[in-house]
Design goal:
CATH topology: Alpha/beta knot
CATH architecture: 3-Layer(aba) Sandwich
Distance between the termini: 26 Å
Number of domains: 1
Strand order of the largest sheet: 2-1-4-3-5
CATH class: Alpha Beta
Radius of gyration: 15 Å
Order of helices and strands: EHEHEHEHEH
Strand content: 15-25%
Helix content: 40-55%
């Protein structure tokens, strides 16, 4: 199984970028990880930019991937529940899990309809850069829970 992280734009904050990279490095001890950073739209028309970014997202999704969109309306998992989900994906022979983080405009309804799971990291509103950190940290935590490693405590 592999994880693909698809997000719009680069992580500009150097501290958050360092955290993402650090957790990706740790996570890569358990699962192959690939990051696909999609170009942000620079236009003034928000509707057109949303469509453009959403097309890039759908173009980056593999047809056989389990696509998970981070969305405020999604289901929430505790860390132990997430660990069980990851185990379920592995046992179910899922080849790739694609985690999608939209841009500041969100994603189009088409992107939502093409994803398999909507996942909310929190009822709180997080910046997209912060959501990336929480996403990779929680996935790393899920693996440490599954393996009984001390990090999760």
């Amino acid at each position: 199984m592999s994880f693909r992280f698809i997000w719009v734009g680069k992580t500009r904050d150097e501290h958050l970028r360092a955290l993402v990279n650090g957790y990706l490095k740790r996570l890569s001890h358990f699962v192959r990880c690939d990051v696909t950073e999609l170009r942000e739209c620079a236009g003034a028309d928000a509707r057109l930019c949303l469509e453009e970014e959403s097309k890039r997202i759908t173009g980056a999704l593999a047809s056989d991937a389990l696509a998970i969109l981070l969305d405020i309306e999604g289901r929430q998992w505790s860390s132990p529940q997430l660990a069980k989900e990851v185990e379920r994906w592995q046992v179910g022979a899922v080849k790739e899990v694609a985690f999608v983080v939209g841009g500041h405009l969100g994603v189009s309804p088409e992107v939502k309809s093409q994803t398999d799971v909507l996942w909310s990291l929190s009822r709180l509103t997080l910046t997209h850069e912060m959501a990336r950190v929480v996403l990779v940290e929680q996935l790393y935590r899920a693996y440490t829970i599954s393996r009984g490693l001390p990090y999760q405590k």
